[in-house]
Amino acid sequence: MEDIIKQTRDNVEAFLREDMEHQNKSIDYLLVNPETKETITLASDGGEEIIQFAPYTTKENGYENGYMNVPEWDFNFDSYLFEELQKGYEVGYMSDECHYGVWQTIDEWYPEEFDNIDGVQKYLKYCKDNGITKEYLDNKIGLNTKDVMQYYENLEIGDTMEYLEYIAEVDGLNPENNKEHIVNFYENKQDYIDGERIESVSLKMENLKQNIRDYIEENYNLEEKDMRDERAYFTFVLGYDVLQDMFRNSTAPECDLVYDFCDYEAGRFLESKEYRNPKHSGYEMLVEWVDKNKGQILEDFKEMTGGEIEIYNGNMRIIEKGYRNKEPVALVEKTIGNEKEYIVAFFYTTKQDKLEWAYGYYYDNDKVKAQKDFQKVVSGDNLADTFNKKESRNDYEK
Predict the structure, then answer these.
(1) Which residue, 16, 214, 266, 293, is most buried by CB atoms nearer than 10 A?
(2) In DSSP terms, which residues pair with 335 in a beta bridge?
(3) Are 145 and 113 within 8 A, CB to CB?
(4) First CA to last CA across the chain, in angstroms?
(5) What is the pLDDT of residues 175-210, one digit of tens each?
(6) What distance in Å separates the CA atoms of residue 335 and residue 343, rounded to the nearest whole number?
(7) Which tens digit of pLDDT belongs to each residue from 235-287?
(8) SS3 string of 75-134?
(9) If we measure between CA atoms, which residue out of 62, 155, 76 comes closest to residue 114?
(10) What is the model's pTM?
């Protein structure tokens, strides 16, 4: 086939040199059909004038000198190049300038505006096999070429790709079918690193990336995976944010127990009407759900772990404890319906399920301010000059 390419190229170049009308033209590309040995050659002046030499551009068909003029308005790479490649032709030669033009066209229009996607893929394989890269074209043309090899759908042995968080790894040829690759699938990057694959399957090597995407979509329960990811997220938020104070004051703070409990509550939240509320973020609705179900959550925790959460007066709990000059101080959370009130309580005492204090500073629902002031107190500071306090002896009922 190399002889056919060379002979055809020599013949066309000689014609262009000798014909006064076409001396300003050069070959853009040459295609060859490996089955029929027929060739298609396109030449142009790099601008408006294009001519094509092909099996159907012969004198018998009314075209002089074996070529036809291609109107500029009619020419596009999809019809004149990619369609022929899809029919069975292969690239025998292409100039660097033409490669650059093809790459620019692919970057701008792929894939929506192409009818011959397989032809595009065949061209990209030619580029991969022949070292036509962005770096090569940048060096030859002197321009910043858009890298279209990202659209190449084939993969080589040892290559990996990620799709919907799954990792696919090309392991080798199928010994029973040399047109297929063995592909290993992993649920995520960490499983890939650990070598914990889901399965290995044989897929056609042509357009392998798309074959992998199709396989993942058809064989893995993506809705279930999304739900697992959601559950994992809410488990984390419960453990490290929304319920953190509760665990800090429990008698069963072990990490494994806390994780199992938060995972259980996350599952309950995913079944709630709050989770299905589309008007607010998942985090906002989780906080609202926890506030509405605090009593049940406490009962769940007690049943699951055997641990106790200290609740006083039926609606108060101590978030943090400390001392100022040997005076016991506590940051108290008081629940009133769906509302929270925070109190820095001095000289507090606990007796069975009762919580009392000598005097306190009240913060309504401003937990951040309450926590900052509590830290000031245990550091030895006095809040009297920085806070308009409300004080009362045995004020736990307010």
Answers:
(1) 266
(2) 340
(3) no
(4) 95
(5) 999 999 999 999 889 999 999 999 999 999 888 998
(6) 11
(7) 888 888 888 776 665 555 556 677 888 888 898 898 888 887 777 788 889 98
(8) CCHHHHHHHHHHHCCEEEEECHHHHHHHHHHHHHHCCCCCCCHHHHHHHHHHHHHCCCCH
(9) 76
(10) 0.51
Residues of the chain with pLDDT under 50: 61-63, 388-398
Report residue 40 as tokens.
Answer: 């298609």
Give CA–CA dist 14/277, Å, rounded: 74
Q: Which two tokens stand for residue 225?
A: 């995976």
Which amino acid is residue 385, in one-letter code? D
Q: Kindly report the number of other CB atoms within 10 A of residue 296's CB atom.
A: 11
Q: What is the dihedral of CA 187, 193, 197, 203, to 10 degrees?
A: 80
Query: How far apart are the C-alpha atoms of 16 and 27, rounded to whole Å?
Result: 9
CA atoms of 122 and 11, how far apart (whole Å): 26
DSSP letters, 11-75, are HHHHHHHH-GGGTT-EEEEEEE-TTT--EEEEEE-SSS-EEEE-TT-SGGGT-GGGEEEE-TTT-
Alpha-carbon Rg for the chain in angstroms: 37
Give the separation between CA 50 and CA 70, rounded to whole angstroms.
Answer: 5
The structure tokens listed for 386 are 């920085």
Alpha helices per DSSP H over 147-293: 189-194, 208-219, 222-237, 244-248, 255-270, 282-292
Q: How is residue 323 written in tokens?
A: 């001392």
